[in-house]
Amino acid sequence: MTTSTALYTDRYELTMLAAALRDGTAARPCVFELFSRRLSGGRRFGVVAGTGRLLSLLREFRFGEDELRFLRDNDVVDAATLAYLEDYRFTGTIRGYREGELYFPGSPILTVEGSFADAVVLETLALSVLNHDSAVATAASRMSIAAGDRPLAEMGSRRAAEHSAVAAARAAYIAGFGATSNLEAGRRWGIPTMGTAAHSWTLLHDDEESAFRSQIEALGTATTLLVDTYDIRAGVELAIRVAGTSLGGVRIDSGDLPIVAAEVRAQLDELGATGTRITVTSDLDEYAIAALAASPVDAYGVGTSVVTGSGYPTASMVYKLVARQDAAGAWVPVAKASADKASKGGRKAAFRSLEHGTASAETIAVSAGFDEVDVPSEHPDARPLQVVLVEAGEIDTSFEGAEGTASARAHHLRVREELPIRALALSKSDPAIPTLWVDAV
Amino acid sequence: MTTSTALYTDRYELTMLAAALRDGTAARPCVFELFSRRLSGGRRFGVVAGTGRLLSLLREFRFGEDELRFLRDNDVVDAATLAYLEDYRFTGTIRGYREGELYFPGSPILTVEGSFADAVVLETLALSVLNHDSAVATAASRMSIAAGDRPLAEMGSRRAAEHSAVAAARAAYIAGFGATSNLEAGRRWGIPTMGTAAHSWTLLHDDEESAFRSQIEALGTATTLLVDTYDIRAGVELAIRVAGTSLGGVRIDSGDLPIVAAEVRAQLDELGATGTRITVTSDLDEYAIAALAASPVDAYGVGTSVVTGSGYPTASMVYKLVARQDAAGAWVPVAKASADKASKGGRKAAFRSLEHGTASAETIAVSAGFDEVDVPSEHPDARPLQVVLVEAGEIDTSFEGAEGTASARAHHLRVREELPIRALALSKSDPAIPTLWVDAV
């Protein structure tokens, strides 16, 4: 078992590196950009997530003996390339959107500056992390908006691969969820963990009453009892009989939720359990949550739909060479030109233009090379969107770990407030604000 | 950094364990079953994948100092439970479908036998692995059927979280793909790796000709040149001029593929490059592959759609208690009864019924407890579907690693041949064979 992330890489990155070391272009200063041409699924905004994870994975992007042996034994690259990789560490600079920031079509989410050799090998790792985490965060933010002030917990680990589940819990938390069922996410990122009980708990016991009684004895009356194993009405009645009217909550995991929630609320109130909360957890997504806004539901648990990006399990971000120096050291903006998938060459600087505090445009200034770009003069109150994440190989540690996760969440909740009202609707539409392209001054 | 997988677990599993240790039910012998009530997306069959990975992860499912400290510091469970977890290792038995096997609604994909304490804690890990890997394998198998004899490579790592990408490469390989771009999958599971070049390779150079020339010099004329950076027709002409008519292949990553492929084939033939192969890689899924069956395409590279399960990124498998002993030691079949999501109690044994070598039914025999179940007498030529994966805590290592992956792939390709013709169609429909429930004799 190794912790190197160096082989989370597509083979062609290393074979291009080998060819570039051979022809001398490996040393050319380059600017790669990670961006998305569109927002998936007619979403009105995207949420950047994964940046903090990526920085930690970048630290482990080293080719050790095991990695080099695999590459040598399988003739992936030649001896000169193996020698280069043995000493590889990223020594370039990465600027990017803060984690939790919103993005729109063309937003330069990451700008990776370095030699071709430095930067080309990071394509797969950077895209893997940001495409997955941003897809989850984008869906999660919509759910969090739909839930309003009601608590919202992520409990989809079982519907995502085991490591992705941890990353998804983190992305959902950044985008406004309040807790996760995933213990590893709690340990790794300091995310609050929660849970109730499964149907197996009730079925393990001789009857529902023994199950409820045992749970109350072990976990206290503040716990949440799952009441839909046999018959919901009987389950609720039994729950209050066993726990008393101070029971913390009941969970409903099946049935037609708006109807069932109203019935259960009425029944709880009749029984005097007016403070007992109702948590619902059955196949929720942002639409189902919105549809429950007028129902007497106190908390939501969301599984499958949040960890799979609610229909869009990956963002459509790409990693493209946008500028490089020629042999004489002059910067040349570059871009694929043919057919579809055309993109815009040149390094980008990005600003959120605001009018009276409300976002009005994603303003992107294009320059050829490494020049510093000021806030565009037409948009003097624009907010610069890029920060330095890695400078000459030094990773800014403040974006990592529990601290980075908490600050990404705070940043997201803050910048979401800048969105115009139409951004909050769930239906498919155009991006909430236009992308304005301007020339760098 | 730890390699323990013990916290890839939902919090409620440990709190149920705590309550069960307290009331004595933790020791009750139990049978949990992992199954799916339906096939996602109107698919006609599902493909089991992830079993080999799960067994390796199960070996690391131990609560070490770090895990126990987190649970203690966050008051997840009490001291008695911490003491139990400190010594935890799974000592039960797991039977299951062989990896690569087909599954249908109700198929008992895994049967986990042990005490409640032994088995309840594995719910999330088992579901995470099997739901993800099986979703990918199911989509991949359809693509592999659509591709027929043409080589098919998985290159979707950038559209899946970094660890899932490795698992997805493995699942796709098991389901019939021939190679992956992911180097870690090559190292870990012995899967053949492949790759061509990116648009950045061409853009790095002063012109397309220098890029092609350099690639040929470094990698030989058997390489595949990416010809759509500027203009495909000019790119193809240049590729053959630089490499000669023995050029291995050209890759097309954009445009209307049936039209473009035909044009490129005609152009290559005119230039005398009749042996130069055409690889296409632009947004393919099983439907696009099928639509290219009559086009002169030699190989497919599939990205996003295979790693995201082609619209169904997770299988809908669940992990349910289906039988347990009561206080007197008698077996009791159990199942959730209310509303939707009802399931069938009792331990299942599964057989693929065959008629003249063609699968005719998924025959599932139900018994209350641990009884051995014979091939049903009505289906004497039925093939038993379950094998022992873990016996009294001992993991069968033959299912793990490169060896297990290769044998899962061979098994899949073999059992796929048993399917009736209607199973191979891509449109949404019912499962290809019915599930027959019989009582165990």
From TrEMBL, chains A, B:
Record keywords: Glycosyltransferase, Ligase, Phosphoprotein, Pyridine nucleotide biosynthesis, Transferase
Keyword Nucleotide-binding: no
Record's catalysed reaction(s): 5-phospho-alpha-D-ribose 1-diphosphate + nicotinate + ATP + H2O = nicotinate beta-D-ribonucleotide + ADP + phosphate + diphosphate
Pathway linked to the protein: Cofactor biosynthesis; NAD(+) biosynthesis; nicotinate D-ribonucleotide from nicotinate: step 1/1
Listed EC numbers: 6.3.4.21
Nicotinate phosphoribosyltransferase N-terminal domain residues: 7-131
Entry comment on modification after translation: Transiently phosphorylated on a His residue during the reaction cycle. Phosphorylation strongly increases the affinity for substrates and increases the rate of nicotinate D-ribonucleotide production. Dephosphorylation regenerates the low-affinity form of the enzyme, leading to product release.
Residues of the Nicotinate/nicotinamide phosphoribosyltransferase domain: 152-350
Family annotation (Pfam families): NAPRTase (PF04095), NAPRTase_N (PF17767)
GO cellular component: cytosol
Biological processes per GO annotation: NAD+ biosynthetic process via the salvage pathway
A molecular function (GO) term: glycosyltransferase activity
Family indicated by similarity: Belongs to the NAPRTase family.
Cited function: Catalyzes the first step in the biosynthesis of NAD from nicotinic acid, the ATP-dependent synthesis of beta-nicotinate D-ribonucleotide from nicotinate and 5-phospho-D-ribose 1-phosphate.
Protein name (Swiss-Prot/TrEMBL): Nicotinate phosphoribosyltransferase
Organism phylogeny: Bacteria, Bacillati, Actinomycetota, Actinomycetes, Micrococcales
